[in-house]
Write a structure and sequence with these properties.
flat, 47% strand, 827 residues, six-stranded mixed beta sheet, mainly beta, 1 helix
Length: 827
Amino acid sequence: MNFFDFTVSDDNGKPLVAGSTINVVLDAGANDLVSKNLQLKGNQITIGDTKDTSQTHFRVWVVDNNAKDSLTGTITFKINVISQNDNYPIPDQDWFTGMLLHGTTSGTTFGVPASISLADSSSRTLYLSETQLPDTSTRLTFIVRDGTGTPINVSQKAPVSFFLLQAPIGTHLSTVQDSTGAGGAVSVTVSAGNTPGIAQVAARTTDGSGNFITALSMPIQVAHGLPDSNQIFLSLAQNMFNNMGNQVGTITVNLADVNGNFPAPEYVFFNTTGGVINPGSVLSDASGRASAALYGGKVPIDPVKGFGNVSVYVKVHGGVNVTRKAPFVFSGAPVVTTLNVPASDTIIISDGGSMDIDYKIADANGIPLAQGNTITVSVSGFASSGIALSNAVNITTGTIDTNNTTYIVRLSDAVANGGISGNFDVYIAVNGPSGSTTRHFYGVLRAAQQINVPSPEALKAAQIAYVGITASDIYVDGVGALENAVITYEVHDSLGMPVAASPKYGASFSISFFPNSTIGGGTAPHVIPATDSTDSQGQLRASIISGTEAGVVELVAQIVLASGNIISSQPVKITVHAGFPDQNHFSILTSRFVFPGWTLNCGLTTFTVVVGDTFSNPVSKGTAVYFHSQAGVIETGFNDFQAYTDKDGMATVKLLPVNPGPDVLPYYDPTALNGRKGGHWVYAQTQNRNGGQVIDSVLVVWNEGPIIVVQSPPSITMQQFHSSASFTLEVTDANGNPLPDGTTFTVSFVIPAGTSGVAFDTYGNIPTLPIPVYAAGRFPGPGTTIFTFGVTDNSTPPGANATTCKITISVPCLGSTTIAIPVTLTP
């Protein structure tokens, strides 16, 4: 009689669910004389409802019921598990072997393989090979033992064959055979391909009688590749309060691979056009999720002030890096503006009457307030009980639409023909995460007897008041931007109230235009209609339509009264600007002319176009500019990048220095840098009024390692004490191009041991500070690739007979190199 122990658990080492069954059986045929006399005890197990991890360890006894025979041979057991967790093993596969030894069996069973078993089962998951992570392969170890359970001796070298019992395409083994070594161990490495699935490894050897004995690994899951570019999900709350130091939102990225599984751990890099993100990079967790906090800070201007974007960069299936963006709004402190409260700050409500107060709630930039702010309108004072409030009285903010910042509240007399009268106060208050502010003005509720019918003369037109304009800036005809603005006037009587619907008052509009004085030609703006008459609210309207000239428009409304008197409005000014892009006013600029290539971690180079029209003004906001580059990948388009001009006529994009590099034609220009590789052109283009091309380009240079240094002369000889000698270094990248800005030279001297009074100094154009950004940096020559150094011996006796001048050249993202220049000192 003997026993063996084994463990059955889920992937986390926990007991299986209640009702799971484990059945250990002898795998023997009807004529198997060795197995037919054996009996198993403790081999029928049903799992109860338990959290006890000890309920994962089991023991089965093997009893020989015929102790008198002398049979000896191999015993094969099978462990069958039926569970909701999963069933095990795969049908018709051996799992465990042993040997029956009779008391008179000779010692030949010692040292002869009788069983093989898996030494460990810690490797359950392999990542797909495209991830290039260490966990794309695992090493499995099996132990071969003889009939006594002793590992096979190292000198006996039992051969073991390995094969994949099942595996997805691409999964492979490092070898098909091994021989036992120390402790009877054999090993094989299983490596994943790029197809997910389940892999299982079998190890097989033979016993002393030539029978096969086999052991299986635990099932190994092959899954989890790089993220799929179509399954990058970025979420961010859109309205946030701009407050330096406080967290205002959380950016969450959820990833999945092309097979619909969570991806292997992958670094996600974050960026923002406003505020601060922390941390800047996060390794995704087992659920493909990465998060970072967005804090208040710098107000973004992307595409307009207050609006910004957060970006994530992640390496995806295919080995490329992709970007995803999410918009957000930074809203500042609240500002309350009343739009129709008189300059006296006092409103008057007649008995039984009402008044609508228009007011605007936004920050100083006109951006809606952050979510969760409350707007409250209230009245107080002696006559407040006689005022009823309606419409926009209590509001909670929560929109990013800049058109939804104005509200109307109605103040009405609560009791017509009676009730209280007198003075009251009106308060429009804002409270919440954006801060607190209050607009306070005054009111008078008149009593019924205070209503006096004015004389007919008092109700006649007396003044033309400006009410508002739809836009104070318009653009010349044909650029695709706003080309007209509507101005509204209101005709008031001598009491300051709008005139009645009848009689109507006719008005004429006169326009004055002050064009750009340096550019002639084109057509001037005009007004339609030339005349108008008051409507039921006493209002007049005129529309300014732009022409093809830029400048300033001034409009005045006039009414000739029956008495012959003329009343006029104050002039209203409108700016007409931004024509079509003009080649003479189109420029492309770069943040640096020379920069490290093949890296995204050293700051990306930006390219900015400044687009003006023929009037020397910025073109209209939103003018499209197309960028393209001989090498690398450059941003363009509108949805994700900023290749449309802002209010200053500027558009900025980034160049990603990735494939194709400027190393082979046509990705570099062999004429631009005298045949050197690494230089290429970046272009920006748009269209002029006639559909013709407007284009500009700039030559930039990628740096590639290694750093090349040529020294002349190779060594220096000079007299001791206060003499000098010079040498020249030519320093370039691998293509012979100048190194990028930020490159530094560090000089040191090796002082011989046992010397005293030794002091050396250097002179010349040594760039101990970073090399600056400048256009000439693209071309070799003094100060860019050629540097002259001098060494001076400032020693005092006894000094030294020799030293070594060491110069270390450090280049951002290309590393560093050190050269040693021997210096010989003669008496």
